[in-house]
Amino acid sequence: MPHYQPKSRCASVQWKDPSSPLTKKFKVTPSAGKVMLTMFWDYQGVLLSYFQKCHENVNSASYCEVLLKLWNAIRRRHPGQLASGVLLLQDNARPHTAQAAQERIQELKWELLEHSPYSPYLAPSDFHLFDLLKTTMVANVLLMMEEVEMEVQKWLRQQLNDFYAVGFYALVKQWNNRITDGGGHVEKSFISRF
């Protein structure tokens, strides 16, 4: 989440006469950087939202620690879920696909759902959650990391109960569409579980 107020291309559009001179647009650069949010959620809501510390690298070791935090969050929120099995959908970022992370997932006895590279339409956080969150955050000028974190947590709490269910079932619909279109990338056996 940006610390500064980014302006979308659409926000700067103006009606002009064809003979009017073009206005120069200056690129706004982030001065304070960004806050990295790793979030895990299911159809009932957020399981874990973890904010990476400023200037901390995201690597396989830090991701393995986050997976343990997720295990504890699932144990607290859905105690029986760990015994009945956890399906994990993550993107193909290097820390997620590293051997240490893969071993941690096996150690936790979770089943990993394959995610096709360059396919944001198959990642519910991309097509359902982060776009809406970023749109909301554009209206706020936040300078401190703590302010960004508080606003994100507040936004997550304000979502109605069915917000997460809608995103979850939109994923199932996206998968079904990919299978129907013959686009592959999704195993039919996973669809039948939902």
TrEMBL record:
UniProt protein name: Tc1-like transposase DDE domain-containing protein
Domain of life: Eukaryota
Name of one Pfam family that matches: Transposase_1
InterPro entries in UniProt: RNaseH_sf, Transposase-MT_Hybrid, Transposase_1
GO molecular function: nucleic acid binding
